[in-house]
Design a protein that fits this description.
This protein has about 475 residues and is of the alpha+beta class. About 35% of the residues lie in helices and about 20% in strands. The longest helix has 23 residues, at about 365-390. It binds flavin-adenine dinucleotide. The site of flavin-adenine dinucleotide has 39 residues, from α1, β2 and α8.
């Protein structure tokens, strides 16, 4: 068994730590934020300060894929989430009325999932981590660099531990970078004398405006969680303990949207959207929370087939992150942690083999989610820009448009679409299923579903009134 240091105690770092501790490793999670979760998860929204996670109070949902990984790797975690006030969500309960065949299908249960606000879900995961006998979470400790050990591959630095901000060294057989979107690992690698990792990075270009509400009943869902509406999109998310959130987002360069920071303007815009307006029927528990400047970033520690370092791997957002509107970061991060567990089981004694095996599993199992998200975001931002400028929007990706159009009428296409949205499957997997091409062909040429709401002219009026 190994000593493993996880840098970063966010949701994915903690899940990875828990999985590795379950396999018998001694895991130490080092987290700079000094305070642990409150005893009652529901209190985390008000009481838990997490300066290390900029998006802590931004809208978050978990997905069926998170539940699937949790059930397989961390049994009992979903029950803990429910005990903490998280809610079950089943998108099959809000099948579009245009789908006539409403009979259940085998496997429908896997589309159900449990979700809650980010502070509450993280508090539950953190409590599970802190209760684990082989996992220690040391809070108030920042990792500032790596400790070199004897090379496992000629000319490639090997990591044998980390240095912390108090000047201490923490030795480890494996170091896991789970420091999130702003991972400082590029600097750590430079100091170690490693060749640079392969990095792709750009701003995703979206600005988010969110309000949280509370009430005795979750709003009824009519339409998808993420609804494109002309030059903006809306996200409606159920939350824990009688809460929910509504988000409007659009390109950062769409400056009139800044008026959405004003709660009255926000409510006016959402109130003009027939499928989302009733999500305002609750007690507002926040003003409008705004966030922009979110980066898409991908880092790969294997370049031209060779590790740039051994003894170090990156999981979750420290590996890759995108525009978050699809709500996939934690689900993809959980899958990534699951892949790490498998790679450690197979290759712990071979540092170079471990980095290679994890890289291959990452490229096969999670990089496609990153790539499809980037493509979807680019297409959507181009569409928003065109609609804002009064130009015709570029034609949509025909494959995705075909699946969307078929999902309006066909129960199995709808389930396939849900699987792609919630990370249970990649679009190619769904499209390759027997009969799916025919289902899509049967609706070829039909327009994709349109979310009713204000057009650009009316939106500008609502923003400026
Ligand atoms: C606006 C917004 C909305 C989102 N909505 C969703 C959603 O609906 N669903 C979803 O699944 N995902 C969503 N995400 C993405 C999700 O927040 C991330 O994917 C998730 O937090 C990644 O977890 P992580 O543990 O990898 O990183 P983080 O949660 O960012 O945690 C990183 C941790 O590392 C610590 N750290 C930083 N530097 C150091 C250091 N030097 N040493 C040690 N520790 C360090 C930080 O303090 C922090 O605790 C959203 C993101 C944003 C920005």
């Amino acid at each position: 068994m190994a000593g493993i240091v996880v840098c970063g105690g966010g949701v994915v770092g903690l899940c990875a730590g828990l999985m590795l501790a379950e396999d018998g490793h001694e895991v130490t999670v080092l987290e700079p934020d000094p305070t642990g979760p409150p005893e009652q998860p529901a209190a985390a929204w008000d009481d838990w300060r997490r300066g290390g996670v900029a998006q802590f109070r931004q809208p978050h949902t978990l997905f069926p894929r998170f539940r699937q990984v949790a059930d397989a790797e961390l049994p009992g975690l979903v029950d803990r989430l429910v005990d903490g006030g998280c809610v079950w969500v089943d998108y099959l309960e809000s099948l579009p009325p245009s789908i006539e065949d409403r009979t259940p299908r085998p496997g429908d249960d896997r589309l159900r999932f449990v979700t809650g606000r980010r502070p509450v879900t993280e508090a539950v995961v953190a409590a599970a981590a802190e209760a684990h006998p082989r996992l220690s979470v040391r809070r108030g400790v920042r990792v500032v660099g790596l400790v070199a050990g004897p090379a496992a591959l000629p000319g490639v630095p090997h990591v044998a531990g980390v240095r912390t901000d108090s000047g201490a060294e923490v030795r480890a057989d494996l170091v896991v970078d789970a420091t999130g979107r702003r991972s400082p690992s590029a600097d750590w690698l430079t100091e170690l004398g490693a060749h640079p990792a392969r990095v792709e990075s750009q701003t995703s270009g979206f600005a988010y405006y969110t309000r949280y509400f509370a009430g005795p009943e979750q709003p009824r869902r009519i339409g998808p969680q993420l609804a494109p509406l002309g030059s903006v999109s809306l996200i409606t998310l159920g939350g824990d303990n009688g809460t929910w959130s509504v988000t409007v987002f659009g390109p950062t360069r769409d400056t009139p949207l800044k008026a959405l920071r004003e709660p009255a303007v926000f409510d006016r815009v959402v109130g003009a959207c027939p499928r989302q307006a009733h999500w305002l029927d609750g007690r507002p528990v926040t003003g409008v929370l705004a966030m922009a400047g979110v980066l898409d970033r991908y880092r790969r520690l294997v370049v031209d087939g060779e590790p740039v370092v051994t003894g170090l791997v990156a999981v979750g957002d420290a590996w890759a992150c995108t525009n978050p509107s699809a709500g996939r970061g934690i689900s993809v991060g959980a899958v990534h942690a699951q892949l790490l567990r498998a790679a450690v089981r197979a290759e712990l004694d071979d540092p170079a083999g471990l980095v290679r095996a994890f890289d291959e599993a990452t490229e096969r199992g999670v990089t496609p989610f990153y790539r499809t998200q980037l493509a979807a975001d680019r297409a959507r931002i181009a569409e928003m820009d065109a609609l804002r400028a009064g130009r015709e929007a570029p034609p949509p990706d025909p494959v995705r448009a075909g699946l969307l159009a078929a999902a309006v009428h066909d129960p199995d296409a709808y389930r396939g679409l849900l699987e792609t949205v919630t990370c249970l499957a990649l679009p190619d997997e769904v499209l390759a299923r027997p009969g799916m091409a025919q289902r899509i062909a049967a609706h070829a040429g039909e327009p994709p579903p349109v979310t009713p709401g204000p057009d650009r002219t009316r939106l500008l009026e609502l923003l400026s009134a």
